[in-house]
Amino acid sequence: MSKGFEKYIPFVPLKMEHRSWPDKQISHPPVWCSVDLRDGNQALVDPMNLQEKLEYFHTLVDIGIKEIEIGFPSASETEYEICRELIEGGHIPDDVTIQVLVQARPHLIQKTFEAIRGAKHVILHFYNSTSTLQRKVVFHMDMDGITKIATDAAKLIYELSQPVIAEGMDLRYEYSPESFMGTEMDYAVEICQAVLEDLHATPEKRVILNLPTTVENCMPNYFADELEYFISKLPSRDCAIISLHPHNDRGEGVATAEMGLLAGAERVEATLFGNGERTGNVDIVTLALNMHTQGVDSGLDFSHINRIREMYERCTKMKVGERQPYAGELVFTAFSGSHQDAINKGSQYMQESGSGKWEIPYLPIDPADVGRQYEPIIRINSQSGKGGAAFVMQHSFGFDLPKAMHPEFGHIVQVETDRVGTELQPQRIYELFKENYIDAAKPYELVRHAFAEFTDEEGHSHVTFSGTLRHKETVFQVQGSGNGPIDAFFNAIHGQKMDHFTFVDYKEHAIKQGSDSQAVAYIHLQDENGKDWFGVGMSHNINLAPLRGILSAINRAVTAKD
Ligand code: KIV
Ligand code: ZN
Question: Is residue 142 over pLDDT 50?
């Protein structure tokens, strides 16, 4: 039995007669706002310096984020200077709006106005705590007192902004009732409506109402209920842009954002890889790529996720976990054999169907969409199945092994993984393939040969093979005819010691390695005991590749028996 749970007060969900959000779908992206440089930055052991913040800012711009909270300029000289450098240094593209955060306190608001002078597009974001708990244990204030803090700030902001707007700044307002999720919903509506009125919000000049789960304290469906209720009760709904700001204390930040969007939110504040206070803010990468995999254009560019991850780790000195959705080192790696087989089959199915639709089990996203490679999708270790090695051969080296050969080659690879005790890299898998099949050129060697070919009046082809073979020290001549090179060769070796094999199947395709194009032939033979033997031959000559393949299969069988 666990200890300590009795002391917690469970979240009390709203009583909803009707809710419509569960029947909705996300069909378009929200307005994205990055709070990396503020909420994310304030949660770092070593907050970013100017250079790091600038580099981070430019990455956010490149991703396509148009609203970026750059800091808390009234909080410290460093924050103020960074804000000034962004504006004066000409770092902000014309289509990007910077957002600055300030507490609902007059002297901080004044300082914030100084910090933003000269900027073209600004969102002035102010907040105060509204939750039952914060009112009780932190502020010792009733609802009216808390409302006054917000409305006084709103009035001051409106007043200070008039000359700035007259000078040409595109200045918008955002208000956050901090700890919204723990606030009585009717009171949240009341305080937000009062703020909208004091900011003179209209449908043409809408104010952003940012409704944070400052501390995620309930399941995302309860939050969505709160949101739907809030929106339905807000008198000036058409004068507000409803924004989300999920934190991730229960690990449900993404679900909170997604259900919040279903419940009517239009904007999301988030950070790359979910950096932020405690367990972080909601992860914008996951949110956007979740939409992408549902066929919705997120409007954001994560096509070079590794580059973004590298910048993030360098600037924040945080690590992106190996299993972080879409971005983690291991998320495109299948260790399990059955997963590898299914991925292999899915990839073949997609090629054959030609529908262009992504239908690969265990890979919810095409790794190429985030600039990642197919090669590391499958790692070969002792847990891998028969299809994994064949998949690597196909995707990393272009060898399309026949299905029947997969178990045999898979076994060769498995023996090697057991021997070395670690996973095998694609190059080692190729080496095993080469050593076992292509290089199986002894004891029987083809020294020289010639084909003669003619087609009769009925269109039948007749091929004669004449060649010199060597078996250890013995050199011997063979000749035979057939309806094609393979048949002719088989007939030629009839009567020799190597003739106890039956031909089962063969497959050939072209393969390009660098600028060099060759034919590769896979040969399937059976010995007198019914045992399968595979061989592989390569040559620039499409007639020679299968002969080498046959000798490869025979040599492997003979060597194994010896
Ligand atoms: O989490 C939060 O509530 C905040 C506010 C300042 C918006 O970061
Ligand atoms: Zn926050």
Answer: yes
Give 10 Cα–ligand 1 centroid separation in angstroms.
Answer: 22
Mean pLDDT for 261-274 is: 98
How far, in Å, CA of 127 to CA of 34, rounded? 17
- At 111-141, the pLDDT tens digits run 999 999 999 999 999 999 999 999 999 999 9
Residues near ion ligand 2 (CB < 5 Å) are: 39
Dist CA 246 CA 212 (whole Å) = 6
What is the SS3 assignment for 524? strand
Point out the ligand 1 atom lying closest to the alpha carbon of residue 247.
1
Tokens 């960074």 locate to 82
Supply the residue whose CA is at minimum distance from atom 2 of ligand 1: 214
Distance from residue 7's CA to the centre of ligand 1 (Å): 26
CA–CA distance, 543 with 529 (Å, rounded to integer): 29
3-state secondary structure of 166: helix
Inter-residue contact 298 to 338 (CB < 8 Å):
no
Alpha-helical runs (H) found in 246-377 = 253-262, 284-292, 305-316, 337-353
Rounded to the nearest angstrom, the distance between the alpha carbon of 245 and the centre of ligand 1 is 7
* Minimal-distance CA residue to ligand 1 atom 1: 214
Q: What is the mean pLDDT of residues 245-271?
A: 98
Whether residue 376 is predicted with pLDDT greater than 50 in this model: the reply is no
pLDDT in the model for residue 261: 98
The pLDDT value recorded for residue 337 is 74
Two tokens at 295?
A: 């066929």
What is the Å distance from ligand 2's center to 43 Cα?
Answer: 10
Number of H helices, E strands in the chain: 17, 14
Give residue 224's Cα distance to chain centre. 26
CA-based nearest residue to 331, from 390, 376, 284, 297 = 376
Structure tokens belonging to residue 310:
């590298």
Mean pLDDT of the 472-501 span: 90
Mean pLDDT taken over the chain: 94
* Residue 341 CB-half CA count within 13 A: 12
Phi, psi angle pair for 413, to nearest 5°: -70, -40
Percentage of residues in the chain having pLDDT higher than 70: 98
**Nearest alpha carbon, ligand 1 atom 4:** 214
Whether the CB of 537 sits within 6 Å of ligand 1: no
